Amino acid sequence: MLFNLDDIFETTRMITEHNLDVRTITMGISLRDCCHPDINVTAQKIYDKICTKAEKLVRTGEDIEAELGVPIINKRISVTPISMVGESCTANDYVPLARALDKAGKQVGVNFIGGFSALVDKGYTKGDINLINSIPEALDVTDIVCSSVSVGSTKCGINMDAVKQMGEIIKMTASRTADRDALGCAKLVVFCNAVPDNPFMAGAFLGVTEPETVINVGVSGPGVVKHALESVRGGDIGEVAETIKKTAFKITRVGQLVAQEAAKRLNTQFGIIDLSLAPTPAIGDSVAHILEEIGLECCGGPGTTATLAMLNDAVKKGGLMASSYVGGLSGAFIPVSEDAGMIHAVECGCLTLEKLEAMTCVCSVGLDMIAIPGDTSAATISAIIADEAAIGMINNKTTAVRVIPVPGKGVGENVEFGGLLGYAPIIKVNTYKPDKFIARGGRIPAPVRSLTN
After folding, report:
1. Phi-psi region of 392 (alpha: psi -120 to 50; beta: other; left: phi over 0)
2. How far is residue 288's CA from residue 226's CA, in Å, rounded to a whole number?
3. Domain coordinates of the chain in residue numbers?
4. How far apart are CA 14 and CA 121, in angstroms?
5. Angle, CA of 292, 321 and 395, to the nearest 5°
6. Contacts of 210 (CB under 8 A, 6+ apart)
7. Helices marked H in 109-221 — which ranges?
8. In terms of Cα–Cα distance, which of 125, 120, 155 is closest to 445?
């Protein structure tokens, strides 16, 4: 592909002035051959395989970053859901497997390792039960392990028994990591329609249809999009959408170059580019500020859902034109604690939990990195999960919940997570009780639209 000087200078400005980066290179590693009846043997096999396959991942990322001048913020690993890997073990406690993941991830130098996961859309196996019960302790005693549980899909409906349990698991995780403001919950996400090639944490895992190893790359660039929109102030919405699409194309080409080079050097295959406008707490790197540049006084006010829908669609259209392998959760993320504009909108009272839920109908994921009062009940958290899963199930899209009930803190207080996770104001939660609904259990049937065969 040939570039002229203007293209090169524009890309340089995107990087140096507008926070363009490759948010993550994530290596997926299959652990399906690590199963053994003895959990200690399984743990050792997990450690050995990760250290072998990902030995050069971090160095390769650093080399590409230096040679191309493109910042690569995170190097990560995703693995086969551990509920499947551990199922042949006679032990019921999977914490040793989480420790093995943590140790291996630290050995090879990655930022996070995802896949302490279970897929229970229709029901549980022994491995699923063991893994879910192990989550609170696993996220307490490890530092870089991330966990996810899929509780529903458009094809399967929603496993309400799992929804009920995950509310309880989130509360237990918050309690065990209370001394760190419930940091364990920041590494735990509950999905509907989980995708098998997601490079972003906390929800990354390697799906069962994926190869032995694979490179998936997540590209970001809210600052680049906002800057581009500043040049079309006064233009109509069609012009705004076209500008976003063209900008997304340019961002995706950068990610494509990095992904292909990383896969080549690591002697593995290139999987997908996830073009997600993933914000950071840094000023100038906010999805909320993009929406405000389009014309909102403040994110969360009237018009927010419409502007976000247009943004998400334009980003995907631009990405699809730039790469044949766009996947993951491509679109716009709205994590509260990781977005300076979202934080401000919550603090000033414009952005509420209910409005965030409405926004998830049209964006990439769901209720993400939201701090809630520590006294929020497990049943209420389960009901929030059920609502979000229903949006995903009915609309045939991925939705997720990553909420953090911070022990001892209430509305108006802040919680500091640090680094990329940022900080968040505690947001108000509706206090009317859903306990009887959640106690019913069972399974919400798949919708009519699931009958597509």
Report:
1. alpha
2. 10
3. 1-453
4. 41
5. 65
6. 28, 30, 196, 197, 271
7. 126-141, 160-176
8. 155
- Answer whether residue 2 shows pLDDT above 80: no
**For 351, phi and psi rounded to 5 degrees?**
-105, 120
d(CA 338, CA 420): 7
- The owner of tokens 């650093």 is 62
Q: Please report where in the chains the tokens 């093995």 appear, as a residue.
A: 100
CB burial class (10 A; 0-12, 13-18, 19+) of residue 332? buried
Q: Count CB neighbours of 302 within 10 A.
A: 9
Q: Kindly tell me the burial class for residue 92, based on how many C-beta atoms sit within 10 Å of its own C-beta (0-12, 13-18, 19 or more).
A: middle
User: Letter for the amino acid at 29?
Assistant: I
Burial zone of 112 (CB within 10 Å; 0-12 exposed, 13-18 middle, 19+ buried): buried
Q: Are 174 and 404 in contact (CB under 8 A)?
A: yes
Residue 367 clears pLDDT 50, i.e. is over it = yes
Q: Between 397 and 323, where is the model more confident?
A: 397
Strand (E) or helix (H) holding 30: none
CA 380, 381, 386, 391 torsion: positive or negative? positive
Angle between helices 237-265 and 304-322 (to 10 degrees): 50
**Amino acid identity, position 301:** G
Which range, of 295-309, 322-336, 343-357, averages the lowest pLDDT?
322-336
**At 76, phi and psi to the nearest 5?**
-135, 165
Q: May I ask the CATH architecture of the domain 1-453? A: Alpha-Beta Barrel (3.20)
